């Protein structure tokens, strides 16, 4: 297992070439991918670390299950028609004989913790491949975002171990992969995990719930043993040496007279080949989907940004700047913000200083960050800011978000302290979610709305549906804060959906993606 944070690979992107601007719809995904541990951790690795781990106990391996889930979702793609692929349609396909076992539900169940209005289950499947492969010592799979979840089942066609080679190769070809690529992809997948007796008793010859026959001698290491065991004749891979008629790996690996297997037997070549073929695997999407650029760690990223009012009723701008430090020699940094007020004017002192949060290292396999907090009065509001980073060794770096500055709206401000989630079931068995927002008076903005993402459980489908339900907000108080009117909105929230996100919106302005988690249980 890799030690997080200590064996960081240096990053190769150039800040100036990176087209990302904040905010972006890949912000959450980027955080989940690179903030695996430490401060502000999302903790996706908890599901798969170490590589042999499963929260479901003996005879299971979550890392292998995550990779298998992505494959089964992807392989029903029809390249010519532009349908299927990584679209999480597998959530509707659980009753098909081609999708046996607990792996898919287990993967979806874990990923549901990170599933939200910004992040599709299909993107989380891709993230699962990245995280599992990396945890098992494999290469860094490049990751894009923007996959869209299917709303129903797609075509069938996942290869089964009893299929003949023509059938298997034809399905890979339909999905856009030739024989060489098929062999590579199967080898890269079957370096992890194995066959479960409970699902394939005829193959393992043992139907015990803990019977788990590994594909190679190092099932918890993403390495070329799947190839070398096969070539040197020592393999115990049940899909190679198992009963005749169900040894698809034997057919696949030998499909070109072992040429591809021989070409990827070297550890380094295997890793590089898998890096390429698994990236291609997770980028198979319906033709209606446009994936984002590759998600590299964002060098400078505002996080937890929130306007608020302090106890003396002054408008405040609060948040943190997350700074990538794994690409820096000098990590003794001064981080400042320079802002323009609500009307775009620059106040005489427009510098906001930050202070590094103690113990605020956050990290993943491929990035390490430090977080700089700020909380500053902005009585005339704020419309945008730039960020300067000054290393102690000298030089000032200015980050202007692709020249436009980091945009901030201060027309509607969600007020967490006044909001609440009352955890008492009403007549419908729902809880009562109350949001309070301050709306700027001088902008002639009326009729704010409270837009709640409601999660609904679906029979036979592990992943909930997400639907935005909007309702109006009413004037609550006009003189609490100078220049603002307070509005309140209520939502009768199904208990199942207690952990969700919501926006408060007025006109074209939104204070968005607020979490229901951590809200006070009583309203003030
Ligand atoms: C010819 C195509 C394939 C066939 C017929 C096939 C068949 C199988 C079978 C029968 C299992 C045992 C499942 C269980 O007992 O839980 C399995 C496991 C697995 N497959 Fe494949 N597979 C194919 C291709 C792939 C590909 C391309 C990948 C990924 C790149 C992949 C990844 C995995 C993984 C990681 C496991 C282990 C799951 C676990 O340990 O729970 N497979 N495969
Ligand atoms: C599959 O495609 C790759 C890349 O285009 C090519 O190098 C390889 O020779 C092809 N394999 C077969 C069997 O056509
Ligand atoms: C079946 O598999 C289980 C779990 O691996 C093992 O404990 C048991 O001994 C096996 N039974 C036979 C008959 O091999
Ligand atoms: C491929 O390798 C396997 C395992 O070593 C061997 O049994 C088989 O004969 C080889 N096939 C060819 C065509 O060389
Ligand atoms: C941020 O930088 C841009 C250009 O790089 C500049 O036009 C803008 O005025 C700056 N904003 C502030 C608030 O300093
Ligand atoms: C400007 O404000 C910042 C913090 O808000 C403060 O640290 C700094 O000393 C001020 N600069 C001047 C010249 O007043
Ligand atoms: C997967 O979860 C769904 C929803 O809970 C359930 O109906 C289905 O039976 C599960 N399938 C398996 C194979 O566990
Ligand atoms: C939610 O609570 C508020 C008081 O905080 C109340 O006015 C409102 O009627 C409640 N809504 C529902 C749906 O119970």
TrEMBL record:
Signal peptide interval: 1-19
Principal EC category: oxidoreductase
Domain Plant heme peroxidase family profile: residue ranges: 120-273
Domain of life assignment: Eukaryota
Protein family (similarity comment): Belongs to the peroxidase family.
Designated name of the protein: Peroxidase
UniProt GO MF annotations: heme binding; metal ion binding; peroxidase activity
Enzyme Commission number, as recorded: 1.11.1.-
Recorded coiled-coil stretches: none
